[in-house]
Amino acid sequence: MRAVLINFAAAPAPLDADAIFDRWPSLADIAEAIASGGTRVTVIQMAGFSRHVTRGGVDYRFVDSRELHGAGDLGRCAARLAGEAGADIVHVHGLAFARHAAVLTRCLPGVPVVLQDHANGLPSRWRHMPWRRWYGAADGIVFTALEQAEPFTRRRLFGRHTRLIAIPESSSRFSPGDRHAARAATGLHGDPCVLSVGHLAAGKDPLTMLDGVARACERLPGLQLWCAYGTAPLMAEVRRRIDGDARLAGRVHLLGAVPHAGIERLMHAADLFVSASLAEGSGYALLEAMACGLRPVVTDIPSFRVITGGGRVGNLWPRGDAAALAGALVAAASDIVASATSRHEVREHFDASLSFDALGRQWAEAYRQLVDGRNAA
What pTM value is reported for the model? Predict the structure, then answer.
């Protein structure tokens, strides 16, 4: 089967192909995960130049879209290229491009189209009517967790015959490593050593995370929290919270931005991964932590629930509840002390459900169902 993946969002100028792969690792990660299931994959990426690249068994067509305007032009161009590639199914990244996908269905009437959610959110309520029509043109819509579709289905935005499918958004190339060597290299320490990777922003709820750590350290006096982050709009509030609580002063370490390879070393060094996110389309940092075998202590939100197997590997706690986070940290710390195989169990779950091979199998089955459904119609 030939799947054509389309990224209508233009790559930022003036990046060339190699720089785009570095800036957007998910461009190759998702394509290669799908290819690992035996599907032949072509990627059409809108950009400021034209180039054909083959990488990791995937064909990439970078399309100069500077003279293409609106969903009609972009959709017709992508449809032509998908037809030339011999597409059996077309996979559009981002629910925000449903209008473009509807153009594809008109241009390629015999080819099923699937949309993949990337935390795009609901369209404006006053524009629901055209969005119903555009979403309705899709044969399938994919979320990390089916619960994420509920705001759309409640407003009857999806067609009655559109399949809703749950597949994790992506995977990770990280792998387990030597904890002692990583601690020596990074300087991380703690009993437990807890790692957070995420912006210090409202959606990540760092203040609840700090409150939970402050409570947990009363029972875990050796706990140390290490925070890697890119942006920090709540830095002033975070610093006030740390400086104003003797339980946190000297226990919380703000690392700032860390290169991607450095994040993997931090995850090798840590005992637990913590996230207080209020909502996530998927959770790339969580996927990376689990690829390293790091036990997660994360909010009980739909995507995290799916990724952790309903909390079978890790500890889930209600978002915004600092007391529950403290209890989850204490329980997780006790579990890793009691089980020498904790990291192995997390990685085993990752291999079975979240790895490139696992996602490839899930996508292959989803594509098969959509193609068979179109053929039977």
Answer: 0.92
